[in-house]
Amino acid sequence: MSVRRSRQVKYGPYTIDEFLPTLYPFEFRLDFLKVFHPLTWMLWFFHIAYDLVLAFQTRRDHPRPAWSLCAAFVAEFFLTLPEALTALDIALGLLSGKANQPRPIYKLSSDTAPTVDVLITCCGEPVPIILNTLKAATAQDYPQLRFRIFVLDDGADQILQRAVEKVVIDLGTVSSPIIKYLSRPKDLHTKTYFKSGNLRFGIEASQRLNGGSDYLAGLDADMIVEPDWLRKMVPHLILDDRVACVCCPQNYYNVPEWDPLGQQAEFGVIFTIQEIFNDYLGATMCTGTGYVARRRAITEIGGWPLAYAGEDYMCSALLTGAGWEVVFAREPLQAGLAPESIKALTTQRMRWVRF
User: Fold this and answer.
1) In 119-193, which residue ranges form alpha helices assigned H by DSSP?
2) Which of 251, 308, 347, 354 has the most CB atoms at less than 10 Å from its CB?
3) How far is 251 from 145, CA to CA, in rounded Å?
4) Shortest CA distance to 113 belongs to which of 203, 13, 17?
């Protein structure tokens, strides 16, 4: 990413450096895309219309084979419809003038900073992995007394609790961030909602401790953030009161260079093309880790949405539906663990689609 500072912004008590981002290839050709996407959609429409006419003509001349042709037409229609609707949505967004300039990179340079509660959600992951995430969070180059860290353990692991308490003792300085281990009570008669229920519990619990913070930040148990993660994410919320949530890309640090399961390649497409483009159109979706959100906005939509999967996307939809904005910061500021086998990958994806 670019390190060329374009200007310094004073916003109330905060000083923020603004940098020019490095553009991806497609960003140099937005005018071309304004033609390409409508043309793609029109070609799909004419292709489907031609298939339909061909199916009816064949049915008239050869009734029996026509049914299999009609079945093939229906299958093709529904298989290609999502992509066609996506192309149409992008085309309408481009033609309506929604696309703005690329979002700058920001960094809070002052020692004055808003308060942030960092929520690390975990449930049964290996303790060393969780501790790596916790230690990276404590090492933030952010005013230490302006953020707190909550380890939200849905597995009620006493070994983890003792390990977190040891980290607190080892830090042992007044200037270190406050670290809290929390585990919510459960019973057989109440739905847990997995990660989303854990997050809602953490948000409510942190609110009861000294009134909560200005912003909320979420990390998965295996996500190690860069030391300047908060300094680079928070300014997006400071500078625009309409922004409810800012998200950043995910990278993996355990994927082999040749990426046999295509995991880094898949997320590369999402975070270097899809989400960059969505940000132009005001359609960014929260990706569930590494985000920073405005607590007031989360409260306004009734708290973190409860679901067994997809709660981050639901949160984005609720926020934008309530008039807030979700934006994308293009710098890679976190790295985590990818599934290391086909079985683990399949289990992960099945969990994502199970509502």
Assistant:
1) 127-138, 158-171
2) 251
3) 29
4) 13
Residue 154 and residue 192: Cα distance in Å, rounded? 9
Separation CA 88–CA 222 (nearest Å): 37
The answer to whether 271 and 250 are in contact (CB under 8 A) is yes
Q: Do 212 and 323 form a contact (C-beta atoms < 8 A)?
A: no
Q: 2: pLDDT confidence band, cut at 50, 70 and 90?
A: very low
Structure tokens at 194: 């997995």
Burial 152-162 (b: 16+ CB within 10 A, else e): bbbeebeebbe
- Residues 6 or more apart from 318 whose CB is under 8 A from it? 301, 302, 305
| pTM listed for this prediction | 0.85
Cβ burial of 92 (10 Å; 0-12, 13-18, 19+) is: middle
Strand ordering across the sheet containing 105-108:
5-11, 14-19, 105-108
Q: What would the two tokens of residue 237 be?
A: 């919320």
Say which residue the tokens 């007031």 belong to: 296
